[in-house]
Predict the structure.
Amino acid sequence: MRISLCLSFLLYAILGFSQISESDLLQKEKNRLENLKNVLLDADGSEFNKSTALELRSMVDADDDGMDDDWELANGLDPTDNRDAWTDKDGDAIKNMFEFQLSTDPNSPLDPVTTNYNPDTDDFNSLIQSGLGSILVLKMSEGVYTSENTTSFAETDSRIMIQGGWNSDFTEHNPDKYITRFVGDGTDEILYLSSLTEAENDLETYILILEGFEIEQGGSTFGNINFITWGVENAVFVVYDVISSNSATHGMTFHHWSGSHGKVFLVNSEFSGNASHGFRNQTTSESTGDWKFYNITLSRNGSDGNPGFRSFTINSEVNLDATNIIAINNLGSSNLNLGDTYTGTIRHSNFVFSDISDTEMTHENSIQQNPQFINPPGGDYTLGNTSPCIDSGVDIGLPFAGSAPDMGAHELGDIMSFNNNIDLAGINFTLVSNLIEQGQDIEVVCDFDQKVRSIQLQIYDAQGRQVKSSALDKRTKRQNISNSFLPGTYLMQVYVNGSLLSAQQFIIF
Ligand SMILES: [Ca+2]
Ligand SMILES: [Ca+2]
Ligand SMILES: [Ca+2]
Ligand SMILES: [Ca+2]
């Protein structure tokens, strides 16, 4: 609690600059967060519902990485760094952001319990059905899976993840090496998941996560994949590292109907060579959409005259963050055709031959150049060595190669990933002086030879109020923090990758 932090300060002042143990500091940090919650509750009086307050607070996602602050802090992640969403802290091949959506433990490789699909003994449709109403993580190994037409209706909260890209004995996950491919027979959608359409049944959460496979030749109304939510409060659709192609109809479709609140993450995925839309959406009847399209390749769709991406938005609001996407040479009416109730930003993207129809989207740092795909007619949308899309994207937290991310679904080069299992003992932090004249810089130096994602410096005054937060420059391993603090005693806490490393007292005179 703040009071205890304040008392601790007095105690430290009496005892001098004694070393504070790490467990003490962790406990203090927990107390501080608990106190923040209490302050929130107190401020709103007795009528304020405690669970509502906690829920409100838990919905804060300061770094916009899809994981709430509370959950990140409770699990040793960094609520100020979006790069931890796309790493796998406990090495169970389920990325932290997926663990958040699944409500599983990002620090335990035993959670979630997963199911390995065996095509000789398992019925795909039955397996998906069995996961409705709970959590299902279905792993699939390399190979071609034909006619897996699946239609499922969820009646209760469901969290489904289908993960391709495993080797045959499920000991190694690498979707680039172990290709998992669904091939439909052109008559039905290959995956069709919906919440019940007569939904008076209070479905709060419906989550579908698809990772690491190729899918083609689904049929009927919606193409390869269809995900429908009807009045679902927390409707989440994640498509990561998927290639969707269909020479008969659409790549995929998602719908948010009747007051659904949809979060959509289309990431590192390619929608190409679909005869109709690469992907399409309807958001209707007081629904909302919060969409992130990151590193998408959308090309050569719509030979039937339709746009590459088409959305119908009726009496609803959608906010779209489209970043590092290549939407080029779609063959129909346009690359993107958005409804008229969109807001959002298109950033660092490539729209060659484009006519984006939208009303309120803003554009930043986009280019219009030939991306130099290797062989689009042959289905190869990787970038040529001299592509203008190489290193011209912006860092939105995904691992990348080179000086900056590429645009599009296929990053060229060796991708650096960030180490979550960092050795805090190998990092030395020094406050150059702990007696600092008012107005002089506070100088800090760090020494480490590991790959560190973030070092955050937080300064608290003697009342336990945070007065400054600053990120250490990892390149120079130094930081000069200007100060206009009043004379007094202060505490600097140092967080590495979101974990507390140490705390140092200093005095401004
Ligand atoms: Ca977050
Ligand atoms: Ca984060
Ligand atoms: Ca994990
Ligand atoms: Ca886990």
